[in-house]
Amino acid sequence: MYKIANTFMLIFLIFFIFLLIPQMALAWGPGVHTLISFNLLDELKAYGSVFYPIVSNNFWEFLYGSLAPDFMVAKKLVSKKNNSHNFDFADKLIDSAKNEKELSFALGYLSHLASDKIMHEVFLSDYKIVNSFEHISVELLSDAYYANYLNVVSFVLKRKSALDKPLKANFGLVINTFIGKNILRLSTKNAISSISKNIVVNNFKIEKIDKKVIDSYIKFSLKSSLTRITKLK
What we know:
Oligomer: single chain
Strand content: under 5%
Number of helices: 11
Low-confidence stretches: 18-23
Number of strands: 0
Structural class: mainly alpha
């Protein structure tokens, strides 16, 4: 009975996300951002970037930063002043970093935005995806392809950190961030990943975008992130 009730609750939460808050559309989901982060670490090493030792020695902070921009939900409803999902905010994080942990977090934050830029301006444009539900569907399908990385996301989000304090400028943003982090935690559940993929394939006709296509855009996002970081002074 407990398992049935638990499964029902998971299904209800998925439909809640789909039907009630389409403004929550992100770009890449947490699983893909984590995949990109691991690959980016290798690319920074191969490039010989001065930031490689910082990221390598503080990789948890980097991973946390790569998820942090999506702690803010319903970004379209947040005032421009308080919206932290932009490159200006990332640049401020980098400039104000007082130690290597904070800098690694800020670099992860920047990499997230650079990756999302490819998703928004290239991937969604190429496939003419403008509907919020289809947008969320692509996110869910992409993460379902890389469900093994969701375990890493779950581990990262379990640890408490003050690194996301700049995202909480007022009480409203504290609540916003709390909701966003818990939605990301929910998305890491295996049942959520499986159910969401089935919903996508059976109802939104996104199955035409196969894994090879998504892989190509992920590589493009990785390149964008590497370029952003290596151009920093």
